[in-house]
Please model this.
Amino acid sequence: MPLRDTNTPDVSPNWCISVWYPSSDTPGGLDSIQQNADLIRVVNPFWYTPNADGTITTKDADAEDADQLAQWRADGLTIIPTIYSDTWQMITDPTVRAFHVEQIDALVKRMSYDGIDIDYESFPVSSRDDFSAFVEALSARLHQDGKLLTVAVHAKTDDAGAWYGAAAQDWTRIAPAVDVFSIMTYDYTNPKQPPGPIAPPDWVENVLAYAATVTDLHKVRMGLPFYGYSWLNGDPPATNTTWQSASRFVQSFHLPIERDPADMEAHVDLKVRGLPHQTIYFADSVGIEYKLGRILNDYPDLGGVAIWGIGGEDPANWDVLRAARQPNCVLR
Model:
């Protein structure tokens, strides 16, 4: 008996590329979306934040830009805006939580969005059940109208996680309720720590291994950083930077780009007379190609990547993504 019906065409695995925008202080993110609209299938405009009473407000004056929305729709992109919060009062009281769900549903309908993306971070462990109940209720409400729910969660390698924000997110309850489960597999070394890699593949694989125990990986999006961090004199806190900025230093001062063979993440030491010493880690196409090669080999069922940090990124990053796997984005 043949292993595969040779008369049946091969079907590529589900593969979606989404981007949060804006996700960099450097201009160029909007151009990146338009120039790579053949590759990007989902855009998550970072436009909204909730209030303690459950209502929702726009984050800045650029939110709900009609021209941007028209262009993205003309390019065939799925538009799922993000609501971001690091406060949790709107989910702890059942009445306010229900009202918050109604407000989100009304927003999606008013703007004719394809769904909503929830990025609620750094909540206390005491909110764990409340957050799960909120996600489940919002899922049921949006799915009634055929809308999508995506959620961004802190990376962790077990249920407890390494800190309270990760512990507050119950993957076993959240993952079944959502259409897309975006794991923020970056900031392994965060700005408050001494210099180090932002998203080493060994750690990312351990996170995905845990994810595979609670959900099918086809709905998982691996967080993919396009940004960098710079540490002044090697001391925290670090500041955000970009490939574009780091490349100027490399070219101007002929700096060698160093890489640890374990993660292949680019980093440079800027030691130039007249300038403060900086240690810079940043994403580039070499590091991303290495990471994707490993991840897709070990986790071929992974559903895609969610990119943070467009604007000032290495243009060759998009070529790496284009070569890695062609889009075959199935969201429902």
Q: What stands out?
A: The chain has one domain: 16-227+283-324. The longest helix spans residues 94-111.
